[in-house]
Write a structure and sequence with these properties.
This protein is elongated. It contains 5 helices and 38 strands. The strands form 9 sheets. Strands 2, 4, 5, 7, 8, 9 and 16 form a 7-stranded antiparallel sheet that branches. A 5-stranded antiparallel sheet has the order 6-3-1-15-10. The protein is mainly β and about 550 residues long.
Length: about 550
């Protein structure tokens, strides 16, 4: 048989092509694997008890997500998916610090801490989980704790090794190119026979969102506009004008074809009640907002507890009993919540209601002492503001800002008790209404009360904002007569170590303590440990 007309074999080319495909696939696999293993979590102590607050830091290493400013959603779920804790913290340059509040009571089982980074594309949409076993006596143990293998070679920690109770501990850290630093000091004898690990490599899972969209950017909040049934065809370019109560800000966003919108994270907004108005082609439409909810399917784990030592909860119960006995004879000081001052809003008319004799109804208040306002009793009541621009009364009711919170429901205002009204302001000119945009088209009434007023209003939503967390443990007063039996005596998480070093005070509990420090920088991610003794006397 003559083979002269057939092409020459291409085995070398095929082998080269296969090697190239294998090489690229290996790189892609290794990158994916790296993404699975480049996030680390460090807690301030090895175990916790129900009701405890856990401080933690999240570090992203060599990750494309770690280099961007982003938001981490933190949730604590049981195996049924019920949420016990929900928080949002800011991540900058691959570092973030926050806290986790464990429930006071729950049956033995598994709790899952979920960390959801906001990412750009659906292909990058992932979450990390840390599973906690909750024992019968209320001790919580992380199921993914590990020993840190990498020891820092070019970083040193200088400190003494013996201290007295209520003694000052000074720490000096020396090293070059330290990007992030986490320091924790705790009484390791409290966690007897436990491996004393506070370092966790979390599991990676795929979360789910009720909005089911692909693009995801750092945002303050995100949702979908749901118009009334007769208006469902107008999903694209619906305008949502939003008023933020705490920062007294008006901002407008628009929906996409699916009716979804993002409120951008151009400030580190905190928790807030917002008021919103939906319009389409400058016409008000009736609609509700469905906020995004990102979660996971909690794992169903069978936990082998035969090797667990769970003495911490017993110690914690004794500690709380002692502290409560001492604190019973002390008076606690409440902290008042900071609220928006109504005086921050410039009004055209300002009426001090306190200088008048008490009125019977809000109708009497507006009728007798508030000018440029007309109030008519009916079904429903109507209130109109006389606008300077049109030289006439508005065609609809104004918006109301009561102690910083906005509403458009006149019936809520009519139900207020005039005896608790401190002042009323009226905005009716272009100058004072300009900052509110179309929200002020019918004027605005400012009401300040003598006490907080709980109002549930249509077109208002509670938004979970960015929690500003103090990443340094509180300083204990040395002259306090209350016993200090904290198992964790120091916690610091930050991007750069202070030049003057660290200092903290030991507690009243003698024993063996362990200081652990975690670093990122030139040596990637590494760990140093220092043991020190606390005694009643040196």
């Amino acid at each position: 048989m003559n083979y002269s007309h057939q092409p020459a074999p291409r085995a070398p080319q095929l082998i080269t092509l296969r090697l190239l495909i294998y090489f690229v696939a290996s790189l892609m696999f290794n990158e994916a694997l790296a993404n699975d293993t480049n996030w680390r979590i460090v807690f301030n102590q090895p175990q916790y008890a129900l009701g405890d607050t856990a401080h933690f830091a999240v570090v992203g290493i060599n990750s494309k997500h770690a280099s961007r400013k982003s938001v981490l959603t933190i949730k604590l779920l049981d195996k049924q998916g019920n949420s016990f804790f929900y928080n949002r913290i800011l991540m900058t340059e691959g570092f973030s610090a926050g806290y986790l509040l464990f429930p006071d009571q729950m049956p033995a089982g598994v709790l899952t801490m979920v960390i959801i980074p906001e990412v750009v594309l659906e292909s990058d949409f992932f979450a990390y989980t840390v599973n906690w076993f909750v024992s019968e006596n209320g001790t919580l143990v992380p199921l993914t704790g590990k020993s840190m293998i990498e020891t820092c070679k070019n970083i040193t920690i200088n400190m003494d090794s013996i201290f007295m109770v209520r003694d000052k501990v000074e720490i000096n850290v020396k090293g070059e190119r330290i990007n992030n630093l986490i320091v924790s000091a705790y009484n390791k004898q409290v966690f007897a026979d436990f491996n004393n690990n506070i370092y966790v490599e979390p599991d990676r899972v795929v979360p789910n969102s009720n909005l089911k969209t692909s693009a995801r950017w750092p945002y303050y909040f995100r949702g979908r506009v749901v118009p009334e049934s007769t208006q469902k065809s107008t999903m694209d370019s619906i305008a949502i004008t939003i008023y933020l109560s705490k920062v007294n800000l008006v901002y407008k966003v628009f929906t996409n074809k699916a009716g979804i919108f993002d409120f951008p994270l151009f400030m580190d907004f905190e928790d807030d009640w917002i008021f919103y108005k939906t319009t389409y082609k400058n016409q008000t439409i009736d609609a509700t907002i469905e906020l995004e909810n990102v979660t996971i399917n909690p794992p169903n784990l069978n936990v082998d507890t035969s090797n667990f030592k769970l003495e911490y909860s017993s110690y914690n119960n004794i500690r709380k009993s002692v502290e409560n006995s001492y604190n019973f004879f002390r008076y606690g000081e409440g902290i008042e919540e900071e609220t928006l001052s109504e005086s921050d809003i410039i009004t055209d008319i300002d009426v001090n209601i306190e200088k008048y004799e008490p009125f019977n109804t809000m109708y009497d208040v507006f009728l007798n002492v508030v000018p440029m306002v007309r109030y008519r009793i009916g079904e429903p009541d109507q209130l109109r503001v006389f606008l300077k621009k049109t030289a006439g009364y508005a065609m609809a009711d104004p918006l109301y800002i009561i102690n910083g919170y906005m509403t458009n429901q006149t019936e809520l205002i009519a139900g207020l008790d005039p005896r608790f009204i401190k002042r009323i302001g009226v905005l009716r000119t272009d100058k004072t209404l300009a900052r509110f945009g179309e929200l002020g088209s019918n004027g605005i009434i400012i009401i300040e009360t003598k006490a907080n007023v709980e109002l549930t209003s249509k077109n208002t939503l509670f938004i979970k904002g960015i929690t500003k967390h103090n990443s340094v443990s509180k300083t204990i007063e040395l002259d306090s007569k209350s016993p200090d039996l904290r198992p964790s005596v120091f916690w610091w998480a930050g991007t750069k170590p202070p030049a003057a070093g660290f200092s903290f005070y030991t507690s009243n509990a003698p024993g063996q303590y362990l200081l652990q420090a975690f670093f990122t920088g030139n040596e990637k991610f590494c760990n140093l440990k220092k043991s020190f003794q606390v005694s009643i006397s040196k």
